[in-house]
Specification:
The chain has helices at about 15-35, 40-50, 65-70, 75-85, 110-120, 120-135; strands at about 5-10, 10, 60, 90-95, 100-105. The chain has about 140 residues and is mostly helical. The longest helix is centred in the first third of the chain and has 24 residues, at about 15-35. A hairpin with a 7-residue loop joins strand 4 and strand 5 (about 100-105). The strands form two sheets. A three-stranded antiparallel β-sheet has the order 3-5-4. A two-stranded antiparallel sheet has the order 1-2. The chain has one domain (about 5-135): Arc Repressor Mutant, subunit A (Orthogonal Bundle).
């Protein structure tokens, strides 16, 4: 799904773009607060979310996958995974196809905390979705 720049004639509609950016920032702030209220840093919340939300549905990820999805360097993600593992939020399992790699998955505590944050953000996600929907192209009915 692409986000389309709203145009007013031949110029971008800066007010509409600003409203979208404001909605995105409100959601980010709500997510940060919800994470902290459940004993997670915002960065750990994102790490857990990216593991659980693996595109293939496996609910696990390799460090390289997480680095791409989080837009961070692999060594940064490796450190974050190590700290999350020490905190009991994730575990590492050897990759049978490549012994140099490990799968990252959530522990029961990581699952519980992530679910609590996601649940707390239900209303905020609805508001963000409504803001994003303004940018979707109109579909012709035919």
């Amino acid at each position: 799904m692409g986000i389309y720049i709203v145009m007013r004639g031949s110029k971008p509609d800066y007010a509409a773009i600003a409203r979208l950016r404001m909605a995105m920032r409100r959601f980010e702030r709500a997510a940060e607060e919800a994470a902290r209220a459940r004993g997670l840093t915002p960065q750990r919340y994102l790490l857990l979310l990216m593991v659980k939300g693996a595109p293939d549905g496996s609910e696990r990820a390799l460090v390289g996958d997480l680095a791409e999805r989080l837009q961070l360097a692999a060594h940064t993600v490796t450190g974050a995974v190590g700290r999350a593992e020490k905190a009991g939020l994730v575990r590492r399992d050897p990759c049978p196809q490549d012994g140099r790699r490990t799968w990252i998955s959530l522990t029961p505590d990581g699952e519980r905390r992530l679910a609590a944050v996601v649940e707390a953000l239900a209303h905020d996600r609805d508001e963000l979705a409504a803001a994003v929907e303004q940018f979707a192209p109109t579909r012709s009915r035919g």
